[in-house]
Specification:
two-stranded antiparallel ribbon; mainly alpha; 4 strands; about 60% helix; two-stranded antiparallel sheet; Fic-like fold; single chain
Length: about 130
């Protein structure tokens, strides 16, 4: 699942990277991370569309795992936001984690991803989810 998207989106990073002193996932364990993310996605896909809170928690866990993996040298944030948007769309939901000129959304997103705070990400996603028309 995620491995297919990853292969389509770009090349695997081959160097260890960090941001603000925090190390991202080690490259030699990427295959294990892909398996874990695929399991999170499979769990999300069997969730009921009737429970936005559960869906937002699952999407936040996926987002956090992908962010920690940080598979690319560049474009990780854009790729993960688009991937989460598509997963929400699979459930008939709209999700824009990148609204223009919305500093509150940006700050909550950055706090959640930088700190690995799944609760912040889940709350943000829940607030932004809406049904597609």
């Amino acid at each position: 699942m995620f491995q297919d998207v990853y292969d389509w989106a770009g090349k695997r990073r081959t160097v260890e990277i960090s941001k603000e002193g925090k190390q991202f996932f080690p490259t030699n364990y990427f295959d294990t991370a892909f398996e874990y993310i695929d399991k999170l996605i499979a769990d999300y896909r069997i969730c009921s569309t009737e429970n936005n809170r559960e869906l937002s928690e699952k999407l936040a866990a996926i987002l956090d795992a992908i962010n920690y993996l940080h598979p690319f040298r560049e474009g990780n944030g854009r790729t993960q936001r688009e991937f989460i948007r598509i997963l929400a769309l699979e459930k008939g939901l709209l999700l824009n984690l990148n609204p223009p000129d919305n500093t509150e959304v940006y700050e909550r997103y950055m706090t959640g991803t930088i700190d690995g705070n799944v609760e912040v990400l889940s709350s943000l996603i829940l607030d932004l989810l809406s049904e597609s028309k």
